[in-house]
Predict the structure.
Amino acid sequence: MKAVIIGCGRVGSSVAKLLAGEGWDITCVDDDETALARLGEWRGGFVVGHGMELEVLDRAGAAAADAAVVSTDGDNSNIVIGQMLQRRYGIGCVVVRVLDPRRAEFYAERGLRTVCPTKTAIATLADVVRSCDAAPVGSPA
Amino acid sequence: MYAIVAGGGKVGANVTRSLVRMGHEVTLVEQRRDRFEQLEAELGPVVVNGDATELHVLERAGIARPPAIVLAVTGDDEDNIVIAQIAKEGFGVPKAIARVNDPRNQPYFDVLGITQTVCATSGLLGLVEHEVPEHGLVKLLELRGEGLELVELHVPPDAPAAGKRVAGISLPDGARLVSVMRNGVGEIARDDTVIRPGDQVVAILKPGVEDRVRRAVVG
């Protein structure tokens, strides 16, 4: 199975290494060539360029990909690139990182698999507080 | 008419000024604080501070009414695409026009369903081509929604169409001559209109047959 990872920052590079370790054929795309260093000893593909360039997506092999992860540092870039990978390249599984919860929800309702780390963080933070051995001030003993 | 303008740069600010002068109700959304303060000092409560790709900012600007038109004219193409999508698909805004800053991003607008776009670079290039007749064929107007375009052709002395009646020119399917401009006077092209060297001919055609039309008319 082949996947393209657009945006090779902390998140993108870690997902790339994880999936590559499970046998996926991965190509990463980042406009900063030093991002390659985050991948360590890397046997997969790496394309220097921006996901807003069709030529870059072509070179990354988007047309033959089964899955894509879009995790650049811009919500709107991710949303736009993700839809392009779905519609032009016909990739069935496109996962897009969107930090803004409402935008993530809006595009999830329209068929984009959005992952919202902000929402996850909010839920986790609240859960951890609830699990502490501390009662809210003023609550009955 | 109620309009929302997203992006208070030169384009957005001037469009807002004009719409206000024409008596329309407008809300202008500007993200940068300093630019917002400038615009607010000039235009008053018409201006809202915030990122127009955030739904709560658009809601504050009245997107749910909804406006008759949204103009997404920020300096960022991804932002303009998202604003236009949210307006049309999320709130049923009947018309969303997006600015294309980098013409290389045009396919992203097209594939993502933003059919009404304005690109200064492409517009300028069209004007330049219009002034350079050796190109032979100039695009005047693209009707993206309809899948048609209007083109203009200059007929040189040795053109295959020169001296022929319109009915006698072998155009490909999906192309038709519309008008002939001669000595500054335009006429609707009829079957028996004779094309002469020096004419400017306007044709309507399906994208993709431009080269065949050019060969048939200009050579």
